[in-house]
Design goal:
Leucine-rich repeat, LRR (right-handed beta-alpha superhelix); globular; seven-stranded parallel sheet; 155 residues; 1 helix
């Protein structure tokens, strides 16, 4: 647990060979805006990890071994603008309904299929959506058009 760090706004734990993050790890990081934990060996994230980090704006969890995320893991991240989940083993996307300010979403190099995209319709302000190198063989026209209307970059 990171304690007495309520003033911290940025935390970088990249390339540390971490295999897990304990539940409650960020409980005292109430002003955290940036959290980078990419390039580790994480296979999961605790469902309560972001419960106290409601001010988080940038989250980078790319290049780990995460195959699934708790369905409500992002429910407290109402200010989240940038999310990078690329380079994992994801087959589904957890709910992002509370992330109404999301402008950049990177999901490349996962195992997402078309059915995983259904939940992306909740994101109305995304300017950059990266879905490269997944298992998306077909995209529903209504879903694709909805993204392209607001997205400046779509791959």
């Amino acid at each position: 647990m990171v304690s007495t760090l309520s003033a911290m706004i940025s935390l970088t734990l990249e390339q540390n060979s971490r295999q897990n993050i304990p539940s409650g790890f960020l409980d005292n990081c109430t002003n955290l805006k940036i959290f980078y934990i990419s390039n580790n060996h994480l296979s999961y994230l605790p469902d309560d990890l972001f419960q106290s980090t409601t001010t988080l704006r940038m989250l980078d969890v790319c290049c780990n071994h995460i195959s699934s995320l708790p369905s409500q893991i992002f429910e407290y991240l109402i200010w989240l603008e940038y999310l990078d989940l690329s380079g994992n083993l994801l087959t589904e996307i957890p709910s992002l309904v509370e992330c109404k300010r999301m402008v950049s979403l990177k999901l490349s190099n996962n195992f997402l299929a078309q059915s995983a995209l259904d939940q992306l319709g909740q994101l109305k302000h995304v300017l950059m959506l990266d879905l490269t190198k997944n298992r998306i063989q077909e995209i529903d026209n209504n879903i694709a058009l909805e993204y392209l209307i607001s997205a400046e970059y779509f791959s």
